Amino acid sequence: MAEEAEVEMETSAGAVPVPFQLQLDKSIPFQINIAEWNPEKDLLAMVTEDSKVVLHRFNWQRLWMISPGKCITSLCWRPDGKVIALGLEDGSILLHDVENGKLLKSIKSHSVAVICLNWEEEAHISKGEIDSAFVYEDRTRRFFPPAPRVPRMPGLNAGDAGFMDDLEDTFHELSTSPRQHFNMLSSGDKDGCICFSIFGIFPIGKINIHKLSLCAPFLDKTAAFQLLNASIHQLALSKDLSQLVVLSFGELTENLVKPKGKNVLKDEEYAEVQKFSLSGESLVGLHCLLLNTSIFLDRKKELHQVAQQASSIEDLIEVVRASLSVMSKQWSEAMHSFHEKFDPLSSLIVSHGLDSNPQDEFLSVLFGARTSPPLHQFLVNSLGEAGLKRVCKAVDTAGKELHSIIHEHLQPALEIIVFRIAELRGLSRWRARYHIIGLNEELIDCATEKAGMLLVHVERFLRILATVLYQFQNFFNWVLRYIKILMSEPIDQIQPANSELIVVFLKFLLDHDPIGELLEVNKIIVVDVDTMQRVEQLVMFGGYSDTKYLEKTLSDEFNQLEQCLKEAFLLQFTTISQKIDCEDLMPLYKVGYTPEVSSSDAPTSIFYYKGDHNATSEVHTDGDSRVDYICFKVPDESLELTNCIGIIRGFANGLDPVQKRVTSPEAILLCIPDAFQCVDLSLYKENQIVLLLNEATSTLKSTMRSLIMMVQISDYCFLPLSQGTPANLWTLQILKASAVEMHLEIGKVRYISEPVTSPLAVSASRGLACIFTSRKHAMVYILDEDEDETSDID
């Protein structure tokens, strides 16, 4: 066993005590591609080579395994550890419940593979700020019962046909709690797009690195740059949500056309970009970008409120959509049963050579004429009492189902939508606070009117439905009574029918379906002229402006409401997106091959350390601020040196309010001993870095060994980075002459008796590290020696 061999090897050495307690060594049946520790509990989420997600406790007890059916390309946890996000190859992001792995939400923010995810929440409020802290109360719960669930088609179980599980309600309680810390999910894809979602469920912004005009105070150039063919490799949002550090592969070019806007190139400007080499060589490589996301910090209260209302509205819109779909299907099946039984009468009339239609035949009998042969044959032999009762039951059941869906799902959802839109309408009138985030009063007013009109349509639909069902019931009673007369059976138990209503039914309902028409799309309802004139006269009293609403179907009115809401939320999305720009750019290292290949084998890590007292005077921080650290493995072909690791700190801390670099970031280039090669790396707490190294000198794989090593970054002297020049643009070229040899003696090292593979999963909050070997072993180590034990899941 790997653990026994390791202990024997290190005991025979008889040197210093072995660091890092080996807590667990388990054989696993699959290769692991991604692994992340839960930030709050001792839980490890792993993605297998066949894209299954497995969740284990610290003691390796499996809690659940799920398979989304698509290739998983990234994974991250919500900061409270209650939700896990999965990025898929098709651009989707799935949110799952940590308790049981159930799917909570699916978002399609990207069109290509989601390469990286980062979920960050605002810094906790100190005790001195609690009294003045802004807390927004969601008043919906005062006036309404819990929001209705999506209706399910009869016969379907939870999760079938795409319908949401009951846990959807639980998730929204968690994600939109009024006292939950404001949090943001950032996602990057292989085409250079970065998307932002509040609470992970409400999309609020999107930028494309290709079209960003990149400012570069670090390069001391007044021209703007562009990053072509960019692929996002890693993201890290600062703890105050005001800055986003992005590692991206791509080709750096200088843009000779100044953008007309603040930071985004127009399409015509984008076409005029001239590409050329700034330093006479290819500028394809890894670049570090600093994006200004201060809109999230400055307007987090406003964004919190809007996201809380808008995300709930979007969910309730899905309830309305599903309700209309189920209603349409239910009624369509009932009408199919009706016409399946009654349409053969037309064929019988034609076969008997009569020049009439079903309405004429029924009316003649109603007015006392003798039953014609085709009608007698239809009622006695074709339809019969049993067939009539089946049709009657189908229509009656469908009517009850429609009533139930409307009263339990559709109408309650609409009422809450109207209330929430009214809340947004009130917020939109506070232009000083909400205009800046794109909450437009006119668009919200339009949505308010459409929501109100949709409620009117629902009331209209209920009245028409009640009338139609009564008409059907009256007609069926009359037909049943007449069948019994033809069969010479007693009719005492059957109530007499209303003859006038039968005439109305035969004229307007036998061949027409007003209920089905109201559920159709792109259908114009015929309304008499007098009614339309009265509606136009009522406009002067206010409250609505659409005088043609009676000509619209229920489905068309819903589509118009949805379109109004999309326009209102899209304006917010666009407004926020335009306020995210590039503050700085730092080219790190060049590569001699395509970004797609290089990004798959480039270990990186970004971490924000609080109160970095070990930084030199170049990096100034106050007591509560955090300093960014960026660590990455350097490809051997990028430098004449081989087997190197670069560490940069303070890249995001040296800009003044007008985005001028007043202090230089600091960096160091560490050279790993030639006997080992870096497999993966991870920044750790207290200015430490954990390295995973494989032995490179052995030619026999069976005799190879590896090690896990923790290095104190403060033990090394960081050098301030001077501004790049066209002749020496790459940051690592500046550091090459001052590269530092890293010795195994100065760090904590634990040897492992077999080769290891990526990923390296490190938990800074729990003091744990999990590594995986090429022989499919999983090993869990306790990194902090003073921790005698670790807690298990609550």
TrEMBL record:
Signal peptide: none annotated. Keywords: Cell cycle, Cell division, Mitosis, Ubl conjugation pathway. GO terms for biological process: anaphase-promoting complex-dependent catabolic process; cell division; protein K11-linked ubiquitination. It holds the Pfam family ANAPC4. InterPro entries: APC4, Apc4-like_WD40_dom, APC4_long_dom, WD40/YVTN_repeat-like_dom_sf. Residues 287-489 form the Anaphase-promoting complex subunit 4 long domain. It comes from the Eukaryota. The keyword tRNA-binding does not apply. Gene3D superfamilies: YVTN repeat-like/Quinoprotein amine dehydrogenase. GO terms for cellular component: anaphase-promoting complex; nuclear periphery. Residues 36-121 form the Anaphase-promoting complex subunit 4-like WD40 domain. PANTHER family: ANAPHASE PROMOTING COMPLEX SUBUNIT 4 APC4, ANAPHASE-PROMOTING COMPLEX SUBUNIT 4. This is Anaphase-promoting complex subunit 4. It comes from Ensete ventricosum.
